[in-house]
């Protein structure tokens, strides 16, 4: 893990794999850095940069001091600082909340391209009724951290249900880490519920927006809305792939990404 600070004092912590053009991979709301391990082998010619997002494990900021209204801005500043710290104009590759962060960061810093898998944006009709953050916060306050994070898994990762969820979670290698992130996931969800997609996103770089047919309907809808709000974008839908697309189907997703970057 490389740790450094920008000229304004912002702390940065990240892993780098390879020496090519920087490909900054931003994981989603509940996944640790290890989420990108299945993807990395498909980008050997790039310098894959995997940051330690603020609030997720070892970090140079105190996440408890950050309110929900500041969560997204904090992450955007972090990504912009990281983009300025690496050599050359990077490519931003974000999943879910990381995809939203990548798009927002690209409005204020020079990047070569943005790759966004199901950005965590809620359509207006869905957002007005969204209360996941409140339900999770209540469970956390009651000492039910595992149940709180299960609500996120059920609503976002597996909205169509999964047989014997408790057994599935027990066998999921990152589950203990996810439980540890309960408070950060609450803050992140509250930030998502408050975010409003503008009519137009001021991103000059080309953007590949991706979604999967097995993901939540509201994220598939929001992927189309994000695509329409961007001046230079392509929308791709993967048949039979869920919200966990890059980790679930790394070969298919990486093939589409590499094709986009070539053209």
Structure keywords:
11 helices; alpha/beta; 42% helix; 16% strand; eight-stranded mixed beta sheet; 263 residues; 8 strands; Rossmann fold
Q: Can you describe this structure?
A:
The protein has eleven helices and eight strands. An eight-stranded mixed sheet has the order 1-2-4-3-5-6-7-8, sandwiched between helices. The model has no long low-confidence stretch (mean pLDDT 87). The chain has helices spanning 68-85, 97-105, 124-127, 132-141, 145-157, 165-171, 175-180, 182-194, 217-229, 245-248, 250-262, and strands at residues 2-5, 11-17, 22-26, 47-51, 91-95, 113-117, 207-212, 233-238. Helix 1 (68-85) crosses helix 2. The protein starts with a strand and ends with a helix. It is globular, with a radius of gyration of 17 Å. The protein has a single domain, classed as 3-Layer(aba) Sandwich (Rossmann fold), CATH 3.40.50.1820. Strand 5 (91-95), helix 2 (97-105) and strand 6 form a beta-alpha-beta unit.
> Strands across the major sheet, in which order?
1-2-4-3-5-6-7-8
CA-based shape: globular
What is the count of β-strands?
8
Give the end-to-end Cα distance, rounded to a whole number of Å.
33 Å
How would you state the average pLDDT, rounded?
A: 87
Helix proportion: 40-55%
CATH level 1 name: Alpha Beta
Major beta-sheet overview:
8 strands, mixed
Q: From N to C, what is the helix and strand string?
A: EEEEHEHEHHHHHHEHEHH
Q: What low-confidence regions span 5 or more consecutive residues with pLDDT below 50?
A: none
Derived from helix and strand composition plus strand pairing, the structural class reads alpha/beta
Second-tier CATH architecture:
3-Layer(aba) Sandwich
Give the full name of the CATH homologous superfamily.
Answer: Alpha/Beta hydrolase fold, catalytic domain
Strand share of the residues? 15-25%
Query: How many helical elements?
Result: 11
| Rg over C-alpha atoms, rounded to the nearest angstrom | 17 Å
Here the CATH topology equals: Rossmann fold
Q: List the domain count as a whole number.
A: 1
Organism: Halorubrum halodurans
Pfam families: Abhydrolase_6
Domain AB hydrolase-1: 23-255
Keywords: Hydrolase
């Amino acid at each position: 893990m490389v740790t450094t600070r920008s000229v304004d004092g912002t702390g940065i912590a990240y892993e780098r794999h390879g020496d090519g053009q920087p490909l900054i991979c931003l994981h989603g709301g509940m996944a640790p850095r290890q989420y990108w391990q299945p993807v990395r082998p498909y980008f050997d010619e790039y310098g894959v940069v995997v940051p330690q997002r603020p609030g997720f494990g070892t970090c140079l900021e105190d996440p408890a001091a950050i309110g929900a209204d500041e969560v997204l801005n904090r992450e955007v500043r972090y990504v912009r600082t990281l983009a300025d710290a690496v050599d050359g104009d990077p490519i931003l590759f974000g999943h879910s909340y990381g995809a939203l962060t990548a798009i927002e960061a690209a409005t204020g810093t020079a990047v070569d391209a943005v790759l966004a898998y199901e950005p965590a944006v809620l359509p207006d009709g869905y957002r007005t009724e969204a209360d996941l953050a409140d339900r999770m916060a209540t469970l956390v306050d009651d000492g039910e951290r595992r149940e709180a994070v299960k609500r996120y898994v059920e609503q976002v990762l597996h909205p169509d249900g999964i047989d014997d969820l408790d057994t599935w979670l027990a066998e999921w290698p990152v589950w203990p880490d996810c439980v540890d992130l309960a408070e950060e996931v609450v803050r992140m969800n509250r930030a998502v519920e408050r975010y409003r997609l503008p009519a137009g996103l001021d991103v000059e770089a080309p953007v590949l927006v991706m979604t999967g047919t097995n993901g939540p309907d509201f994220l598939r809808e929001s992927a189309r809305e994000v695509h329409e709000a961007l001046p230079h974008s392509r929308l791709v839908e993967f048949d039979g792939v869920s919200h966990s697309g890059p980790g679930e189907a790394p070969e298919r997703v990486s093939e589409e990404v590499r094709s986009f970057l070539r053209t």
